[in-house]
Amino acid sequence: MGLTLCCWLRDGHLKKHQRSSSTFCPFSVTPPIRLAVLLDTPPVAPGNPRSQWSPTHLSPNMQVCPSGGRVRRACVEQSSDAVCGAVGVVAGLHIWEVLWEEQQRGSHALLGVSTHKCPLQASGYTVLIGGDSCSWGWELSTNQLWHDGQRKRRYPGGGATDVLSVPDRILVVLDADAGTLGYVVDNCYLGVAFQDLPKGAELFPAVSCVWGGAEICIRYLCGMTRDAPALQALSRLSARRALGSDRSRTLALPPALQRLLLDTAEEVQQDL
Questions:
Q1: Minimum mean pLDDT range among 88-97, 154-163, 187-196
Q2: What region does 3 belong to: left with phi over 0, alpha with psi -120 to 50, or beta?
Q3: Which of 127, 145, 243, 255 has its CA 20 to 30 Å from the CA of residue 73?
Q4: CA 157: distance to chain centroid?
Q5: What is the average pLDDT score of the chain?
Q6: pLDDT at position 180
Q7: For residue 4, what is the DSSP state?
């Protein structure tokens, strides 16, 4: 049964992730099975250490709030400033949510991952995350990918001719096992942005910013090992996709199973 379900998911007989009328929809690609399951997994409980910015690996012009989940850039001129997440990863598939208002980006607003060797402050306005060989970044204002100080291709791919306006909420998808980095926007997985990331290196979510007063929030949503997804997770995904957006109808199932399929993350965790 598990193998049949995996093949069903792989072959695309399952509906794609629910989408809106976003301009990113034409550039969405079907996520791999592990990622599809993870995107359908309830987020971890608040307070996870991976839901914090680092209080030590950041520019002097960046200040982390007491909870650790929000960082604010000082109102200084002619400076580019970056911050890394508090906890990095060396293996597994992981998703972070980053909230960064479009009005607080300006030029050189980059979101990606880095090692601790990446510089975190520079004079003038420049690319930091993606500006050296130890970081990989997506420039939100231009849709350009950056690595090793070089402008790479536009992202997403698929023949986009205009710069797409990236909304406030972005998901960072890091597969440390495969060495890939991608993004989810408006519930659309946009595919692999970077590949051949160094395996075994500790990688951290990271942002670089030039906008005075910008506030950027981070939250770790979930992660999994390189093992195949559990049959329960695959079955949950299959059932939820079959229900579609109309999940309010009554199911002839035990209450615990109904909560697993339909209810909030907090209620699901109480039953597991």
A1: 154-163
A2: alpha
A3: 145
A4: 17
A5: 84
A6: 98
A7: H
